[in-house]
TrEMBL record:
Residues 1-148 form the HTH marR-type domain. PANTHER family: MARR FAMILY REGULATORY PROTEIN (PTHR33164:SF99), TRANSCRIPTIONAL REGULATOR, MARR FAMILY (PTHR33164). It comes from the Bacteria. SMART domains: HTH_MARR. InterPro entries: HTH_MarR-typ, MarR/SlyA-like, WH-like_DNA-bd_sf, WH_DNA-bd_sf. This is MarR family winged helix-turn-helix transcriptional regulator.
Length: 155
């Protein structure tokens, strides 16, 4: 790191502050709405969503943690809570004794199937409908650019 901080200029600070406010407000509202409408926490939702959409209902614990940018301990605590409610099960990996899979149960599939339409309607109402198609396309490209940039940065 540089010895002298590279402070944000007023335009950079305004852009950053606006992004943070938008992101925190959007995620907070979505979390509260999904919780009140489905009884599912935002963490439950994101785990089930990623397991069913990305992992085909089954994913290695560490792979899922990496995908979500979660620490191993957070992933473990979350999946333990979900196992107690019957949303997922843990299966040992036959090829790797240290590895394990998180697998969506029928109750987990039912929960995400019920919550997803509610979630997407809130996403549409709070986010998609606020932007024109051109703005949405630009936002998507800019978000991808920042994500790609972070992949090239050291933590």
């Amino acid at each position: 790191m540089n010895a002298t901080p590279r402070w944000l200029d007023p335009d950079q600070k305004a852009a950053w502050d606006s992004f943070i406010r938008m992101q925190e407000t959007l995620m907070g509202r979505l979390s509260r709405l999904v919780q009140s409408d489905s009884g599912m926490s935002a963490s439950d939702f994101i785990v089930l969503h990623n397991l069913t959409e990305t992992g085909g209902g089954r994913m290695r614990v560490l792979e899922l943690a990496k995908l979500l940018e979660w620490e191993k301990s957070r992933m473990s605590h979350q999946t333990t809570r979900m196992m107690k409610r019957g949303l997922v099960v843990r299966e040992e990996c036959p090829e790797d004794a240290r590895g394990a899979f998180i697998v969506v149960t029928p109750d987990g599939y039912k929960a995400i199937a019920e919550a997803a339409p509610i979630h997407v309607e809130h996403v549409r109402r709070l986010f998609i409908d606020a932007l024109t198609p051109n703005q949405l396309s630009t936002f998507g490209r800019l978000s991808q650019r920042v994500s790609d940039h972070m992949l090239n940065q050291l933590d």
